[in-house]
Amino acid sequence: MTTLVPPPATASPVPELVLGLEDRPPALVGMLAALQHLLAIIVPIVTPGLLICQALGVPARDTNLVVSMSLVISGIATFVQCRRFGPFGAGLLIVQGTSFNFVGPLIAGGTLMIKEGTPVAGVMAAIFGVVVAGSFIEMGVSRILPFVKRMITPLVTGIVVLMIGLTLIKVGLISMGGGYAAMANGSFANGQNLMLSGVVLAIIVVLNRVRVVWLRSAAIVIALAVGYALAGSMGRLDFTGMHGAAWFQMPVPLHFGLGFSWSLFIPMIVIYLVTSLEAIGDVTATSKVSREPVEGPVWMRRIKGGVLVNGANSLLAGLFNTFPSSIFAQNNGVIQLTGIASRHVGMWIALFLVLLGLFPAVAGAIQAVPEPVLGGAAMVMFGAVAAAGINILASVTLDRRALLIIAVSLALGLGISQVPEFLAHLPQALRHVLESGVATGGICAVLLNWFLPAATEDGAQA
Predict the structure, then answer these.
(1) Are 234 and 194 in contact (CB under 8 A)?
(2) Percentage of the chain modeled with pLDDT above 90
(3) Res. 10: pLDDT tops 60
(4) What is the mean pLDDT of the segment spanning 280-292?
(5) What sign for the dihedral angle of Cα 155, 158, 161, 166?
(6) DSSP H or E run through 152
(7) Mean pLDDT over residues 208-212, rounded?
(8) pLDDT at 459
(9) Closest by alpha carbon to 340, among 87, 86, 137, 82?
């Protein structure tokens, strides 16, 4: 899923590959390998768009478009990452999809704009304008990676990723209870909703403990299928998004138009920076499992190309009515499982994603999933994001300076997200920025990491 950070490059030995990076598999082998990747990524790609649209009250037909474009844009980015065009792409078997990193801030900022009287269409236009503007941050970062790596260290990255996961858990819990619509009609967390979300959550946990590897890899898809069937038996499936939808739909740019909001944009700056650095870890991990260099000029060219496509694809996403994307880490597990690291498999993955996105019925069927079913799976994925942040921090030397930065950043970030009234008397522009717990915690981590001197090896301050 989206922002999970892979193990360090010093992790367990890489097994022998059945197909190397440049090997071209037969069509049937390539399609089967691509389907295994598809099972691991399809739910994380569509979930961010569904959650944001449901939270903001986006109409069903427009939500269908957003979900469809999530698949199409993810397919295009995956193709460019694997194929590589000039400086664009890593040239590895890399899958890219919609990122969970941006879900919390976009929901929080969008909800605030709606409360202030902005219509939903205007909020979506502002969000996509911010996505387009923020994409240039990532593209710029790809050109100055050494400088950014000195400013956004693993300590800062770990804190921000942990903050993202912890703030997303509230979103997951609301979805498990039935979402904002259930809060409005009084059915929130009723017996049906808790049963649907609980069954999905339980199946994911159980399947992740079985010995059959492919069952573990497809645990989320299987759990959602069971939840989907259970919801259908209760009459809870809503196919409104499919009503009147064309059987085939070409991408429509700027469906909502483009707007802009500084209160949305500034919290996103830190997240775009962190997402860029996560991409470095993901590309490095893919290089390692593909038995490719993890240092030197070839590796550096690959991470620059990977981060550049991260940003360019977010630009494309904003123009085509969907949300920022990032390199996925879970496909590295599929490479290790299958022993197939051929980047030509990525072409099949890209083709499947684009085809799925061009048929609105697919998005309509996905959109029919009741929010409690989606919430049961989302809670696991959001918890995994927080666990990824802990994993990054575990690689850092946790001396008194690091613990102080973690303590202050988490305290302020989580505190503000839980008690936004604390900012009531600040200027409105500043209040809108700091009301995002991720932005508050991230900015705090960056500033403290910059200004608090680090200890040298002999214990003196640098």
Answers:
(1) no
(2) 21
(3) no
(4) 82
(5) negative
(6) none
(7) 81
(8) 52
(9) 82
**CA-to-CA separations, 295 to 230, 281, 306, in angstroms, rounded:** 49, 12, 15
Q: What are phi and psi of 75, to 5 degrees?
A: -65, -45
Residue 395 clears pLDDT 80, i.e. is over it:
yes
Helices (H) and strands (E) in the chain, counts: 19, 2
* Calpha distance 41→327 (Å, rounded): 11
Please tell me which residue, 247 or 68, carries the higher pLDDT value. 68
DSSP assignment string, 323-368: --EEE-STHHHHHHHH-B--THHHHHHHHHHHHHHH-HHHHHHHHT
Percent of the chain having pLDDT more than 70?
92
Cα separation, 282 vs 299, in Å, equals 12
Range with top average pLDDT, 210-214, 314-318, 332-336: 314-318
Give the residue among 111, 83, 71, 29 at the shortest CA–CA distance from 366: 71
Distance between CA 317 and CA 66 in Å, rounded? 10
Position 456 scores a pLDDT of 56
DSSP, res 256: S
CB 169 within 8 A of CB 382: yes
- Which residue matches tokens 């697919």? 362
Helix (H) or strand (E) holding 164: helix 154-177
How far is residue 324's CA from residue 100's CA, in Å, rounded to a whole number?
9
Decide: 287 and 294 in contact? Cβ < 8 Å. Answer: yes
Rounded to 5 degrees, φ, ψ at 449 are -65, -35
Which pLDDT score is estimated for 320?
92
What is each CA distance from 328 to 136, 162, 286, 408, in whole angstroms? 20, 17, 10, 30
Q: Is the pLDDT of residue 420 over 80?
A: yes
Task: Assess contact for 81 and 316: CB atoms under 8 A.
Answer: no
CA-nearest of 137, 100, 134 to 3 is 100
Which of 177-191, 386-400, 418-432 is least confident?
A: 418-432
Q: Give yes or no for a contact between 224 and 204, defined as CB atoms under 8 angstroms apart.
A: no
Q: What is the DSSP letter of 97?
A: E
How high does pLDDT run on average in the chain? 83
Q: Give the number of other Cβ atoms within 10 Å of residue 115's Cβ.
A: 8
